[in-house]
## 1
Amino acid sequence: MFTKAAMRRLIARKRDGEALEREALLALIPAYMSDALDDAQMAAFLMACVLRGLNEEETAALTQAFVASGESLEIASDAPMLDKHSSGGVADTTSLIVVPLVAACGVRVGKLAGRALGHTGGTLDKLEAVPGVRTDLEPARFLAQVHDVGCAIAAQSERFVPADKRIYALRDAVAAVPSIGLIAASIVSKKIAGGASAIVYDVKTGNGAFMREPEQARELASLMVRSTRSFGRKAYALVSDMNEPLGASIGATLEMIEARDFLRGTRRDPRLQELCLALARAMLRLAEHPNPDAAIASALANGSAHARLERMLAAQGALPGALEALLPSPQRRVVTAPRAGFLSAIDTPALGEAARELEEHGGPGCGIIVAARIGARLQTGDTLAIVHGTDAKNLEIQAAFTITEHSFAARPLIRDEITR
Amino acid sequence: MFTKAAMRRLIARKRDGEALEREALLALIPAYMSDALDDAQMAAFLMACVLRGLNEEETAALTQAFVASGESLEIASDAPMLDKHSSGGVADTTSLIVVPLVAACGVRVGKLAGRALGHTGGTLDKLEAVPGVRTDLEPARFLAQVHDVGCAIAAQSERFVPADKRIYALRDAVAAVPSIGLIAASIVSKKIAGGASAIVYDVKTGNGAFMREPEQARELASLMVRSTRSFGRKAYALVSDMNEPLGASIGATLEMIEARDFLRGTRRDPRLQELCLALARAMLRLAEHPNPDAAIASALANGSAHARLERMLAAQGALPGALEALLPSPQRRVVTAPRAGFLSAIDTPALGEAARELEEHGGPGCGIIVAARIGARLQTGDTLAIVHGTDAKNLEIQAAFTITEHSFAARPLIRDEITR
């Protein structure tokens, strides 16, 4: 049994920069979950992990301990089931697009998704913008839908990984969030418990991401790939730019509309398209699909990906015609460039937060449509964004766009790939 | 008011290596003491302080907040009152000797002392080895005794510095003890609350000390001197070696006997004498005594220092003749050198712990008398130590002495002085 005295020695060792044994970390989590250890000891331990780091073996052990704290789904033996994860961004509708797209290519996708956090949007909130849609699928129903429809997007069951839930709340309360190892253990444990046989990770970097520095993002991506593989699952990660919103639309309903329109081919933002295709390709490759590029092109061109989105939403309770009926709020104002020049930076978190406030006050269909991309040449009065909602946020939104005199090279969208 | 959200931001700033404002630290402690903050947030904050450090201003602010958490004594206006502090060691009887010695030189001493901790002895336990002696003096009685007798040694009142008591217990539970800034705030706040106008600090370094490295010890000593001065008190510190027991005797009764015999001149260990004289001299200098060396020599030679110890103990309840009647346990065994060579190292904590166990099992008068000093040339069978007690600890105690072939230069006892 893990006593408070043993925990004190373990904290001291991590505080002094030692690497801890697998057995100790595997014993620590059940001791905490059974209240043999208190929050104060765990908080000090987590802060020591943040400041001293966790190596690959420690991260894998903690991940295993998290998985073991609750129920989990077995990997299906008949066919691969893919999952994808994004580390959180603004105007990131890739899950809404890629999940049905990959399913339309014949590969099952069972995605466990989250809620909006801080300035970032949540896939569950976007799905629920379609009247009738439920995301609280019981594990058995989730698996049955993946089997029947080919895909599902649901909230994590409360019965999975309870240790992560409790420890994440403690990390949040005591400012012990920013640790590559703790973040990786939290993310990977949930994916492992969800029963996916292969997982694609999209780690964001830039001013709108939780990992602002590309090196950190790459380190997290690489750690998650190695940790996932240690559980006998396939894995791939890419690092993508989040110095500006990924797609054009910010706000749950507006983003659901953007995903719908992307799949039916009426509007495809080039950056959003580049990332969706890269993610779908990676997922099909992990599933050993013989010809990913041709399958993706065909599913987008023949409408089967769009049809799969509608089937998935219907299976999760969408009212008939509800997806097609989604509309932006009719209250709209245009935010324009106050001077000529080049768009050199966008305050991505400011736009994410402004969109959330517009939705909170104005309801469904409110948010922001971004009309200018970094690197764009602007004249005074050109449209920077269209604001849907009741608040007078024009000046605040205009201030999120930095216009400078000189042109410069734009950043690549996909900054790194971890394939092995 | 200090909310949990404000605390989270403060933890994050310390986690990221920022220096915190005086106001924030002054608000933090009352918020914790009023239970507006929980132990988990405080534990994470303390761990961040351990790993990121506290600068001089932060340490002074925390010290002030600790003092403000309870009652404190005013500095007497009529005459200086000195205090001394040792950071804890083995066979360190300096307080029992220096307090009456300085009082016999005409300078008041009001010492607040502690209990045994880990392998180190506690001055209160040594005093209480004299039958009848009380150390739980109420503040008014403590001050009255200092006024009437010239000196007193007492436990810290429970009403002084309650924040330090609570935070020290939390630091101990969550392994957040080793921080120069937190240690300095804990020590200095108690001395300031005790009303001393001038304080002498003895910071130990070596294998028997809590600060093993001399650089750390010097840093702590220097920080305590500066912090003490920021409260308008005089201060001096020295760094002394604790790679071997300071005096010869380890164990409460044996150490009280050693102090008694030192003051009456029948037995004076040279290392103990060197440190006692240095501390007494520093205290007299801080009190602006015109001729410290002559006064000390006279008080030791004419018996007035020994008489002052007896008066102090009597004032604190000692039974008549009790000090003179103290005896080592009659159960004694000799531990001898297993081979010839030079005594090159002593496992000081091992001797401290062995002596505490001998006392626990054998009662008063048990412990260890160390008979060999580092650097000594030994023949096989020479006495290393005399063990008083019922346990068969000979092999364990013999193993604490390292004998090597080659001679070497001994370390100086006083390694550093911080006079300003």
Note: Residues 370 and 385 of chain B are 4 Å apart (CA to CA).
## 2
Amino acid sequence: MPTRLRGVLAPALTPFTADLEPDAGRFIAHCRWLVDNHAGLAIFGTNSEAASLSVAERIALTDALLDAGIPAAKMMPGTGACSITDAVALTRHAVRHGVAGVLMIPPFYYKGVSDDGVFAYYSEVIERVGDDRLAIYLYHFPLLTQVPITLGLIERLLKRYPRSIAGAKDSSGDWNNSKAMIDTYAASGFDVFPASEALLSKALAIGGAGCISATVNVNPAGIHAVFTHWDQAEGERLQVQADTVRKIFQATTMIPAMKRVVSEFAHDPGWRTVRPPLTAMDDVPAAALLASLRDAQFDMPGYPRG
Amino acid sequence: MPTRLRGVLAPALTPFTADLEPDAGRFIAHCRWLVDNHAGLAIFGTNSEAASLSVAERIALTDALLDAGIPAAKMMPGTGACSITDAVALTRHAVRHGVAGVLMIPPFYYKGVSDDGVFAYYSEVIERVGDDRLAIYLYHFPLLTQVPITLGLIERLLKRYPRSIAGAKDSSGDWNNSKAMIDTYAASGFDVFPASEALLSKALAIGGAGCISATVNVNPAGIHAVFTHWDQAEGERLQVQADTVRKIFQATTMIPAMKRVVSEFAHDPGWRTVRPPLTAMDDVPAAALLASLRDAQFDMPGYPRG
């Protein structure tokens, strides 16, 4: 069994070259900076444009990180897919390379599917991967998938696969749901990560494991400081500081906005590129975003120049 | 340029073996029966559980049909995917083998994407495939994807790629939308297929091209009779007959229900299998469904025994 990841994880942004191919060089540099700033790597999440990547592209990018010496123990790759075939291929590759865990979104094409169907999906993947090192974090994002990870489903999965089901990322944005997950299952070793640092202090106070949040891509040190100091004198001030940055990004279309900000701090316009159907941020809103960040004394210290 | 498909197409059901692998033998038999009953093959649509298949599985099943002598000219495979990489691989393979067209769903993971982003997606696929034989049917299914194919998007795509954009499947279920697509673009050679035979006579009367409908899988001859006779004396009676069958299936969860009915007429319980997250139909609702179909004198004449 791999050591459990706790703390602050980034759904790492995926850079693309001008001809829209995944850019391993920029990806390695970004992930290394995140790790240097105490962030775990939830590569291939929603904010990674993972759905816009093929299975082979995700595997090649993972291999590139590993070859560059980024530790697998810091990784929680997204390996969910609409097809069990794809999910098994991704999960098997990740587990074989010793990742800390995998973050699995349920199949998201069909709507109105039953808990029985979602249970059967996870069950089939677990059985096919057939590896004791497998640690699955269930990805609850009902607004986007319309396929919720219900408390009842967690109960059934934990009962049947207590070794393989390690926790959840809760992207519902609903504190009551995160709280219910933690209150009900944290004692069984089920590690809950809300999807925003805005809930980090609250979650840690009742037994949550950390957070997996988009803005860890741009503010890893600030959010990590909340994780390490939430119960100390400066905890509240650090939480407010992190929230201030979060709110600035939340007012934008997050993925293109974060890429634009990285491109500024990397002095590298190539970072602005997104894959369709997303579109890059226009210059006018980008200028406003950068002005807001300057006002908040935002910085990305030590970010490598492109 | 391939000859345009018109008429009645089935989003062909995809059979699976007991261990949930795609079953090429049953698939060939099913598609051959459909073609024998004058249906075109919109393989890998929503009702084909296409989202539950990997790219390699879709390509292998297409090859199996071609190797079995099913004509590519009858095929309109679904080649859309969340990732341009996957969409290009599927589309390139289909076009190279001479299919009549491809049915492309827009990328469906991200919500609230702009027409600019969806345009960029189709544009990128068309440019990468780079083949004059490419004929794309845009797949409009807003309830499921939340990424609509708007009239404005069709206009832009037709203007930029008049040879590659061939038409649309309209799964909105909204006659006014199908009518607007036909009224606005049919004269430019844009072939519109509503997603239900219930709209077939109406669509044909104003210049629609046919229909691509789930229930063509079980009632191809009955729906084809509407296509050939809608403007003749018996047209209305045939439309009512087809609608009666449609309504019976529409009261169920369509994919497992159609598979259950095929399993009955094929005398082959193996046909009941679906891939997660779908679940097979239970016996009690199946008995009620089969009773309703018997009352309506439903039959699948000549369906091959499994």
Note: Residues 235-250 of chain A form the longest helix (16 residues).
## 3
Amino acid sequence: MAYELHYWPGIQGRGEFVRLALEEAGADYVDVARVPASEGGGERALLQKLRALAPPPFAPPVLVAGEFVLAQTANILLFLGARHGLAPTDEAGRLWVNQLQLTFTDLVKEAHDIHHPISGSLYYEDQKDAAKANAVAFRRERLPKYLGYFERILESAGPWLAGEAVSYADLSLFQAVRGLQYALPQAMAALAPRIGRALALADRIEARPKIARYLASPRRIAFNEAGIFRHYPELDGA
Amino acid sequence: MAYELHYWPGIQGRGEFVRLALEEAGADYVDVARVPASEGGGERALLQKLRALAPPPFAPPVLVAGEFVLAQTANILLFLGARHGLAPTDEAGRLWVNQLQLTFTDLVKEAHDIHHPISGSLYYEDQKDAAKANAVAFRRERLPKYLGYFERILESAGPWLAGEAVSYADLSLFQAVRGLQYALPQAMAALAPRIGRALALADRIEARPKIARYLASPRRIAFNEAGIFRHYPELDGA
């Protein structure tokens, strides 16, 4: 039985955290909205499908796994982590990885809001002044706080965020680091000397065979200015 | 063994979702930062204690439960829900309640950001124009979308969000409804005819004996303008 992933077809977005886990697991899955529209893909079909699912999801990504219909990125990863050995099997370890993933949830929301601080349904151009002010605060305080936090964890334990074995939280740190490097290259270059372990972890994830094959495949959508991590030069700075 | 809850002593905040679960469970717990400073309470002691915990939390609330040191509200509730019968015991039910709680996480962040859209470390007065614009979008689109979503779930199943038995997601819906009614009374009054089931659920939670006792006790901090749900009349509107 192949998993069905339902997510926006043109962006990495929150769905990418799920895609990375599915790829590292070597799981059989269909990225439903990315098949041709003639075969049921596309955004309009996605919205129709989401409305028909039960229990109803609030928003994509949604993973259909047999009788399970799961939404919320961290919730989907909690499920996949247990199924595919991408999380510790003991309760404390499982909760720790979930806790880390929820911190990525917070980081991702804040990284999105630097370009959309007023409303997700207004254009960037119509909230640019607020975006610039938000981005300054994010670069000065939040970015070093978040990445410094993961760095501290790796300093005290490691080599992975949950210790000896790779988990989906490591995949998510990779994705967050690459996204932030795309969106805010100057800020990330300035921060690099203080987050060496986090950057090295991202490199190790990128070199894992299944992830490397995925990243080189057409299945990996490029970062772009419709996603969470957007490169607007006026929001960046050292 | 009493649980230790570590959270800001002067606000309901995200900690309140944990407090409600502990109270409904009848659990023995100490709200550490709220004991007198002479006995180790207060904000400064809280910050010192958080720095000493392992694994390190990114931010409060933190629950210490014997050897477990848990952060992230939804993660703490996942743990307490299983321990105290506040979530279904089957995997699908447990994940569904977690999924709902993560939707409350999103709602709470957006409800906070209507008064702090630029940065949590700037004063409200210094981001008031952006706050007004954010609040308009929140009231018009996000508030009806979130509460309409929970209403739809209750319409198709109920009487509780996970069906026949109360769960921590119901406690969270109560808290979100009361917080939004405090912050945005006009907007919530205008929405009331369309969310009758959600409002009735909040009333039923409020009338549960342990919750009613808690709400009448000095342990319940009043809503105030240092918390997530703040009543700034200029942000409200029908």
Note: Chain A has a mean pLDDT of 97.
